[in-house]
Amino acid sequence: MKVLVLGSGGREHALAWGFREFAGAEVTVAPGNAGTDGGAVGGTVGGASGGTGANMANRPLSALEPGSVLPLVRDAKPDLVVIGPEAALVTGVVDALMDEGVPAFGPTARAAEIEGSKVFAKHLMRTYGIPTAAYETYEDPAEAEAEVRKGLYPKVVKADGLAAGKGAIIVRSAEEGAAAVREIASDKFGQAGRRIVIEAFLTGEEMSAFAVARGQEFVLLPFVQDHKQIGEGDTGPNTGGMGAYGPVAPISDELRTRVREDVLAPTLRAMEESGRPFSGVLFAGLMVDDDRPQVLEFNCRFGDPETQVLVPLCGEPLLDAIRWSATGDGDPRQIQQRVDAEVAARGFAGTVVLASQGYPGAYDKGKRMDGLRRAAEMPQVHVFHAGTARSGEHTVTSGGRVLAVTGVGEDLRSALGRAYEAVSVVEFEGKTFRRDIGHRRLGER
Ligand code: AMP
Ligand code: GLY
User: Fold this and answer.
1) What is the pLDDT of residue 49?
2) Which of 135, 137, 153, 156 to mutate to test ligand 1, by most ligand atoms within 8 A of the CB atom?
3) Which residues of the chain carry a pLDDT beneath 50?
4) For the CA of 305, the nearest ligand
5) Does residue 440's CB lie within 6 angstroms of at least one atom of ligand 1?
6) What single string gives the DSSP state of each residue in 346-398?
7) Which ligand is nearest to the CA of 239?
């Protein structure tokens, strides 16, 4: 099987590695990173998980849109295209591949609206009674500003469109609210801030639910918890995610049932009934209070770094779920049982993100990295590359989030212990990471 993975982050490295490791696929990644570039320089990338074999190679890709993807697909002739980033989905890469007759994992542009527009997602949830924070939407920033100045705080002000994780601002006063509205309405947000959502602040514990879906059927993956903020103890600005672990445990049967029956199933039904049948992965960001889930947001793609937990944890059945979603081959009930059995057998996985100093603000690139091979050779450890590149013989940093280092183990403490042990042998100037991934379950480290 030939698989083409689109994207360049740790999520894409994990998916590419999984397809090669568990499905024996020949994998091309476009544009990829130093970890997915297995072909060049005799595979001396430095021991990335999966980067050293012959069956993984990078191809250049200038943009995540159909005009750039189609020529590559016509040339590489993959059996399956797996799309990582939402940008490619929202621009209609899956629609173009469907027209071309190439199986693709991900929703059409119309279905990707569930992530691409918060106004669309909130209206859908309100219409179908899917639990989410109370909200109003505004097109006129002056009206939004007048409203945000009223009532109780905190509130949450959100941009309608894609904003690379910066589109939700929690405000604690009228002044903060007004400033948030003005920021979202400013040129900085462009089209994404043309409409504004103001919603009630929810409390509880955040977690991510992933349903690999095809129409109304789906395979539910284990719940994963991300750590969005840069600082230990969940302090400082939000990032794309600084670490994650799964499964979140213990999870009551009641919560699992509610997520299935009150959130995922009705959302997929709603999408189909509104003429936007959803295939791909429906990622629900949840706030859970007293076993009651409420939806913070929907995404139409895998999470990063959640995927660096899910692929090592779920193994082959996850890749079968992806193939089923894209092609219809396979039985989702049987895949569900295999996912559950695989997770029960493997235990837990935890991933720690190594970032460049300064991230999520400005940071330097081009820092030489050492210890990658040693880290990747540790048992039950996977080193997934994100912002990395090659510079001559060396691997260097090239992004804000640089690596995600995953450990697997029979319990959460040993899984994260392995990840941190591997983190300690990787060196680069400005290496920044959180030492408290998993703190809600393990306490402070
Ligand atoms: P979003 O982009 O909508 O997922 O929001 C990003 C982050 O903001 C979430 O992961 C939450 O931590 C926080 N957040 C968003 N909406 C709310 C809400 N209604 N109540 C509390 N926190 C929220
Ligand atoms: N880690 C959160 C996300 O991928 O959106």
Assistant:
1) 52
2) 156
3) 39-47, 50-52, 445
4) 2
5) no
6) H-EEEEEEEE-TTTTS------B-B-HHHHHTSTTEEEEESSEEEETTEEEE-
7) 2
